[in-house]
Amino acid sequence: MGDFAPGNMMIKVTPDGKLERIYVFDWESVGPWETAIDVGHFCADMHTVQTTNERCQRSAQILLETFLEAYRKIAHPHPEFARKVIVEIGTHMITIIPHQLVSRETELTRTVVKEGMRLIIKAYSEDASWLRSSPVKLLI
C-alpha cells in the first residue's frame, strides 16, 4: 500500500526562505505498488489541508500544484491514472484521515468523509472531462 506523505519529504530553503530543493524518501514501504496509490495518498493529505485548515491552505495548494505539475512532466500519466488517483484520494479521506485528525472533531471528520465520498462518486460517474476540474487537474 502506498504511503507517500509530507512526512516522507525534507525541504531545503535558501537563506532568504525560498524553496531550493525537495528531497523525497521512503523508509517504511518501498516496493512495487500501484503508483496511483502513492500519488493519491499525498494528494489526499494536501487536499484535506486545503479544505480544512485555513492557515495552511495556500501552502498546501502550492505544494500540491508543484507536485502534480512535476509528476505530469516526468510520467505523462493517462487520464485513467488521474481517475485512479481521485479514487485513492477519496478512499484515503474516508479511511485514514479521520484517524489522523488531531482535533477529532465530529463535524470536521464528517466533512472530510463526505468530501472523500463525493470524489469517489464523481470519479466513477463522470466522464474524463470532469478530471480537468478535479483536485488532480494538473495531472492531465
What best-fitting shape do the alpha-carbon axes yield?
A: globular
Identify the strand order in the major beta sheet.
1-2
Strand content: 5-15%
Q: Helix tally?
A: 6
Cα-atom radius of gyration: 15 Å
Structural class: mainly alpha
Residue-averaged pLDDT: 86
Instruction: Give the SSE order as H and E letters.
Output: EEHHHHHH
Assembly annotation = single chain
Question: What topology emerges from the helices and strands here?
Answer:
Elements: E1 9-13, E2 19-24, H1 35-52, H2 57-75, H3 79-95, H4 97-100, H5 106-125, H6 128-131
Task: Summarize the entry for a quick read.
With 140 residues, this protein is mostly helical.
Structure explained in plain terms:
This protein has 140 residues and is mainly alpha-helical. Helices cover 59% and strands 8% of the residues. The chain has six helices and two strands, in the order ββαααααα. It has helices spanning 35-52, 57-75, 79-95, 97-100, 106-125, 128-131; strands spanning 9-13, 19-24. It has a two-stranded antiparallel sheet with strand order 1-2. Strand 1 and strand 2 (19-24) form a beta hairpin. Helix 1 (35-52) crosses helix 3. The radius of gyration is 15 Å and the shape is globular. The two termini are 24 Å apart.
